[in-house]
Design a protein that fits this description.
The complex is a heterodimer of chains A (82) and B (494). By secondary structure, chain A is mostly helical. Chain A has 4 helices and no strands. The chains are: A mainly alpha (82), B mainly alpha (494).
């Protein structure tokens, strides 16, 4: 996977998260998980998924969503769809 | 067998000696035998119920894993869920469902209701609900769901699986352990770990303190308020609801500390169930800190699948999933409308917090940090105390009466209310309340210190004789001020 592309996806996720969680600026990396961001709770997680899907015009499977443990795995799912 | 009764201590010592006496690979057999004995202690025949559930789940789990045909897989999966849920519904909810149905028919078709009344379900009224049934069911359901999803393997050994479900420290009121967290510990063949065991004893003692000093001394007061609501007035109900919230926390987190401490004696680390929930600044945060093993179970297996499947509804998907989840979670606590209303209130406030989070955040930015925290904590305590009226009241009518009387009797002084209205029903009098209040202060201060790693390290550097003097002093205080009467744990009945 080209490194630049992955960095771009991470940057876009960061912007989406800032909007959904209403936190700015937000510092994230591939290892960031829900435990690191106070606003990333079970209710906001659904909003985050919907916004990412809309932005990238993709649809994740329920299994994919369930098995993500950090932002890096979200990035991989997005890149696998493109 | 209560965790602080003499028969339990004799049982525990025997199991402890036997467990470390036998070679590592046979230790689970000791735990399984002990757990079955523990379960059979009061009504032996009822052990058949968890037995049926365990056998069904184990067989279905193995077959689901083997079958490649999706239709057969689904049939096995539904069969496994149905046996578990069927037994839970039969023992815990059938009476409520039938009565609600008859009442509904009576309302629609006049006062006849098929000519049936409450008394006609007397056989069902006298059904003894097997202990820990809902905890056993939830562990079995979670296990089957994970296998069906193909995310976790089925356990090959029936004995190990039965030990996971029946492990006596968590058998009666959780934590609701996940198979993939517990089973590897069971086969890890761990030897005796002195540090782990000593920490376990300390944790058990801390839980005992919360139960026998705080919860047991608050119970007569809250019983007096909620068992005789028509003798009380306004402020007493507020105080009663708040003290019941404290009692519930002390009782359930005390039980959990004891369960986790006992598990550590055998080298097991169970899930944490509480994370100082009284510091929550919203109900959303509260449900991340309160009864964690249950709330995460509902999140993983109920809320998340519903919200993700309906995510095209956007925010409504979250609200819809929240209501379904919390109505079920409320009902899980017991077969009555009180618990359904309790769940509904949680869902309502969680949804309101969810849709208002951005404007609230803007307002919060203008308020100093400490004031923000204090108002947030006060809001959660006030809301949860109000919810406790439904949780604790004996009947729906009592809960409605209490709510309608919350602002009555304001002309009577608080002192007069406590000492003339409640005390006549309160067996222990003033001293019990004083012990309970001192216990509450000690409980909160203690949990603040225990959560502070730096302070723990400082304490551990003290000379050994001082540290052990502190432990013995604490033990003497618990023995001296504790009420070791036959107060069952509140969550045993759920």
């Amino acid at each position: 996977m080209p490194e630049m592309e992955r960095t771009e996806v991470l940057k876009t996720i960061k912007l989406i998260m800032e909007d959904v969680f209403d936190v700015s600026p937000l510092v994230i990396n591939e290892l960031t998980s829900a435990a690191d961001i106070e606003e990333w709770d079970s209710l906001n997680h659904v909003q985050l998924v919907v916004t990412i899907e809309k932005h990238f015009k993709i649809k994740f499977t329920a299994k994919e969503i369930r098995t993500w443990v950090n932002v890096g795995e979200m990035c991989s799912s997005i890149l696998n769809r493109q | 067998m209560l965790f602080y009764s003499l028969p339990f201590y004799l049982f525990l010592i025997s199991v402890f000696v036997a467990y470390y006496f036998v070679p590592g690979k046979y230790r689970w057999m000791i735990l399984l035998t002990a757990s079955v004995f523990f379960y059979m202690y009061q009504v032996p025949i009822l052990v058949c119920i968890p037995g049926i559930m365990i056998l069904t789940s184990w067989i279905c789990g193995r077959l689901i894993e083997r079958k490649l045909n999706p239709v057969r897989k689904k049939i096995l999966y539904i069969s496994g869920l149905s046996v578990n849920l069927g037994l839970l519904i039969f023992y815990k909810y059938i009476n409520f469902i039938l009565l609600s149905f008859v009442q509904l028919v009576a309302v629609i078709g006049g006062n006849e209701g098929f000519g049936m009344e409450t008394g006609q379900f007397s056989v069902l009224n006298h059904l003894i609900v097997p202990l820990g049934l809902s905890y056993i069911t939830f562990q079995n359901l979670g296990y089957l769901i994970e296998i069906k999803r193909g995310e976790k393997p089925a356990e090959q050994n029936l004995g190990l699986f039965a030990t996971y479900i029946m492990f006596f420290p968590k058998l009666l009121a959780g934590p609701i352990e996940r198979a993939h967290h517990f089973l590897p510990q069971l086969t890890a063949n761990q030897g005796f770990n002195y540090e782990c065991a000593v920490d376990g004893i300390k944790r058990f003692m801390w839980g005992l303190f919360k139960k026998v000093v705080v919860s047991a001394h608050l119970q007569p007061f809250t019983d007096a308020v909620f068992n005789y609501p028509h003798d009380q007035q306004g402020l007493i109900f507020w105080l009663g609801a708040f003290l019941f919230l404290v009692q519930l926390y002390a009782d359930f987190s005390g039980y959990t500390d004891m369960a986790l401490g006992l598990s550590q004696l055998f080298g097991f680390r169970l899930m944490e169930n509480f994370n100082r929930p009284y510091l929550s600044k919203s109900t959303t945060e509260l449900w991340r800190r309160w009864h964690i093993s249950l709330s995460t179970w509902f999140y993983e297996y109920i809320f998340n699948p519903i919200a993700i499947n309906r995510r095209e509804w956007n925010k409504w998907a979250v609200i819809y999933a929240t209501f379904i989840t919390f109505l079920l979670l409320g009902w899980w606590h017991g077969a009555s409308w009180n618990f359904i209303i309790f769940g509904f209130l949680q869902a309502l406030f969680l949804s309101l917090e969810f849709i208002s989070q951005k404007p609230r955040k803007k307002i919060r930015k203008k308020i100093p940090g400490n004031l923000n925290s204090i108002t947030g904590i006060a809001y959660v305590i006030l809301f949860m105390s109000f919810s406790m009226i439904f949780f604790r009241a004996n009947r729906l009518n009592d809960a409605l009466y209490i709510i309608s009387s919350l602002f009555s009797g304001v002309q009577v002084s608080f002192h007069e209310m406590v000492f003339h209205l409640v005390i006549p029903h309160y067996e222990e009098g003033k001293s019990g309340l004083l012990i309970a209040f001192a216990g509450i202060v000690m409980m909160i201060s203690g949990e603040y210190l225990l959560a502070n790693e730096k302070k723990i390290q400082q304490f551990n550097k003290w000379p050994v004789y001082i540290r052990w003097s502190v432990y013995y002093l604490f033990l003497i205080l618990v023995s001296w001020f504790g009420d070791f009467g036959n107060h069952s744990f509140i969550y045993f009945k759920f």
